[in-house]
Structures
1.
Amino acid sequence: MPELPEVETIVQQLRAQGLEGQTICSIDVHWAPIIAPLSDKQFKHQLCNVSITQVGRNGKWMIFSLDSNQTLLVHLRMAGSFSFSPSLYDRIVLHLSDKRSLYYRDTRKFGRWKLVDHPEEILDKLGPDALTSHFSQSYFGTALSSRKRKIKALILDQSCVAGLGNIYADEALWEAKIHPCHPANTLTDSQIKALFHAIKKVLKLGVKNRGTSLGDGKTNYRDLDGISGNNRGAVKAYGRAGQHCNRCQTPLEKITVAQRGTTFCSHCQKIDVAASTDSQKIS
DNA sequence: GAAGACCTGCTA
DNA sequence: TAGCAGGTCTTC
């Protein structure tokens, strides 16, 4: 599942592959709902003969700046990926001026492409990107202080902090030794500090390792070259239910939080009694 | 705040 | 063959 580190890896690769400066000569759309609300015809009309000036990222959104004064925003959602080689699950193909073709692959068809005049209308709804200085400890503390939601639900909320998905949320909470159901507004200052640094740490490690791949190549993350990320070996919690905690050897447990599978260590990530009581009152 | 919808490949 | 996985939007 592409989260911040996976999206960052793909953005870096697209830049390195010289996508900036390329002109889109023609387009194939094999699954039109991805580009909604534009029609196939509108999309091609607005994007053909347009050059890509810059490739960037904010949270999990990829940002393709264009010389037409429009912006193409791409969200990979669950299973989107890019490649310069074709595959069975290509949904959109951009044919470029240097004769290469950029294939957008998406087995589950969940990804979304937004060709817009004002990208800020979408991007301003996001909280600060987790790896920028805008995501500061003081911001994080303030953001948590007024929210009673379970901490995992809150850090998955892109309007609070942009970039975390299920994998890195579990990893950050394990790293900070915080129970995923802990009410956000009852975390202590030291817990907030620990979680803030844990979020930065696990995401930076994810970027360094070029993303996390867990399953097969059809449904799981692959980079631009079809290569798995190397972060799987660094994963301490996500997907390890039943295996021993790397810190205390207690078998990791799996529960559902915010409708997501959630793996944690019931020994390291305890919820304190006062907070637990508050949680019951809230729910 | 929670559940359903969108999707399809994989697993039990 | 039913159920699961998951990011975000919509609906209740």
2.
Amino acid sequence: MPELPEVETTRRGIAPLINNKIIQGIILRTAKLRRPLDPELTNILPGRKIHAVERRAKYLLVRCDGGGLLLHLGMSGNLRVVPASTTVGRHDHVDLVFSDGNCLRFNDPRKFGVLLWTVGDPLTHPLLAGLGPEPLADDLTGDYLYRKSRSRKIAVKPFIMDQKLVVGVGNIYASEALFRAGVRPDRPAGKISRRSYDLLAEEIRQVLGEAIAAGGTTINDFRQNDGKPGYFRQQLRVYGRAGEPCMACESRIISQRLGQRSTYYCPQCQK
DNA sequence: ACGCTCTCCTGGCCGC
DNA sequence: TGCGGCCAGGAGAGCG
């Protein structure tokens, strides 16, 4: 589900609803997400106040007194703020309960999510240590991608999805950005020109920005905090469109398996 | 270091 | 209607 735009959409949805709230308790209904949930959370959290909800890569950072919660939505995670008395549904694994009677409810069918407490600044956690630059900041440039890619044989699509290179580009937006930049996803990263990387860096920023503006992309179950889907799906040009005509040239969109992930591209527009 | 595969988990869909 | 197989928005682990 969530790539950077969906995580950012989630952040913007919940931040005003949980900022400055006091945590009264936490309810853990499963022992284990991608990492085991620490039962100590029930002792650590009560009484702490939330100061900010930030995002780094696809992680959400909920800053509190003395530390912060690090949250990753995995493939299928979803966060909503609801009254704590709301009926618990299937896969509602965690409630962060506030003293105002509401709770932040974490639902994750596939249990690929992560939730853990970090002492001090959550940005210093090892999970975040090796991450690449934020694509929406100015530090993602064509020059950077070009330099990092020299002598790399990996296909450019899995290359730009590597969070150590640049964060936030997942399977949907990787295909979309490569289409917009006119680059075939299976080309070796090291063989792509500086000019193409300039374009690609720009298109990554562009497509992520547009997706955030649309509230993210809903394929199956992603929901914004108000329960509405993300509307960017209508603007996808290649993802999920195998066999359909290219919006630019009418060629049939091709689907190909690359690094175990479905990839979509136009054989005419992308070279 | 790099490139590749497997793995965690559940649900939905497709074909038989 | 049931069942097996495959696929799904992520990413860490382990292998050669």
